[in-house]
């Protein structure tokens, strides 16, 4: 949960009294659901919770929790944008917008120099090209299977008897990376188990896993066109091993988000930014 003040809306979209404009973004993803309350240019409240089989109920819950953190009443919110995998189920939203556009706007709000956004979500991986105002220019998506996604890493971590949050730590232990040739979750699981049974160090397997994810993303990025500055969003952005492999593969330094802002909130933040632009116009 984050409460910070980061100026970013472009001057032409600013309200004369931005502190009085309160908007919200609600991002219903395949794994987690998020909400952000934006008051003027200040992130007033946020919340992240697990997604469920009832996205309408989940949307209500994360929105309510974000309002509580912001100490803002629901009737004070001028405009709400829903986004993400379950955006059509955000029943109280004024409108629904693709998470691709929202991730671009959210990343630009925090890092105005961003031109490429890499979003590693639970269900898919996206490489998004934006202009100087954070507007979508082009994108590529890995939508054929779960390869290279957060769910893929979570699945393989479970096969190793680890939490997905443990992978980053093991990446920096001693060991040369092994080659993971399969990206299909089922075949990759069998390959990883065989490698461990053959005596491959855990750190080597984890490094090989991260390199395979980075290679997959690199292929998408090269098709779209990689323009610095580059920001990574989504839960996998918290994995320092993946970050290191991506920087090596892409041959760029990934820009850090300011403060302790959670990269999982970028889609909801971008939805709130778009909501503010609609109100201010």
Query: If classified by CATH, what would the architecture of the largest domain be?
Result: 2-Layer Sandwich
Outline the biggest β-sheet: 6 strands, mixed
Question: Quick one: CATH class of the largest domain?
Answer: Alpha Beta
- When the domains are counted, the total is 2
Broad structural category: alpha/beta
Mean pLDDT: 90
Adjacency order of strands in the biggest sheet: 1-4-3-2-5-6
Give the amount of beta strand, in percent: 15-25%
Number of strands: 11
Question: Could you state the order of secondary-structure elements as H and E?
Answer: EEEEHEEHEEEHHHHEHEH
User: The CATH topology of the largest domain is what?
Assistant: Nucleotidyltransferase, domain 5
Helical proportion? 25-40%
| Oligomer class | single chain
First and last CA, distance: 29 Å
Radius of gyration computed on alpha carbons: 19 Å
**CATH superfamily of the largest domain, please?**
ATPase, nucleotide binding domain
Give the helix tally. Answer: 8
Note the overall shape: globular
Contiguous runs where pLDDT drops below 50 for at least 5 residues: 1-18
